[in-house]
């Protein structure tokens, strides 16, 4: 593998890590906001909808890998 290819792979991985971190930070901030403003009801709703989004993403990944 050439140095150029390795560098491109590393850059791509760095981008994925940055994007994943942004998404996790956004979801954490949203979770904190729901918890603070709506109490446990808001927290449960957020978790429910978050789980649905995670399941949809997992299904989409599975379909893309098939």
Helix content: over 70%
Unreliable stretches, pLDDT < 50, 5 or more residues?
none
Give the number of domains: 1
Alpha carbon gap, first and last residue: 27 Å
- The overall pLDDT average reads 74
Query: H/E series, N to C?
Result: H
Overall number of strands? 0
What percentage of the residues does DSSP assign to strands (E)? under 5%
What does this structure look like?
By secondary structure, the protein is mainly α. The chain starts with a helix and ends with a helix. It has one domain. It is built from 1 helix and no strands. Helix content is 95%, strand content 0%.
Provide key terms for this protein.
66 residues, mainly alpha
Offer a quick outline of the entry.
With 66 residues, this protein is mainly alpha-helical. It has one helix at residues 3-65.
Structural topology:
Blueprint: H1 3-65
């Amino acid at each position: 593998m050439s140095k150029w290819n390795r560098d491109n792979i590393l850059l791509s991985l760095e981008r994925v890590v940055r994007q994943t971190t942004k998404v996790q930070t956004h979801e954490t901030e949203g979770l904190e906001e729901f918890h603070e403003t709506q109490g446990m009801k808001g927290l449960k709703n957020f978790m429910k909808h978050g789980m649905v989004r995670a399941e949809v993403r997992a299904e989409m990944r599975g379909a893309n890998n098939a």
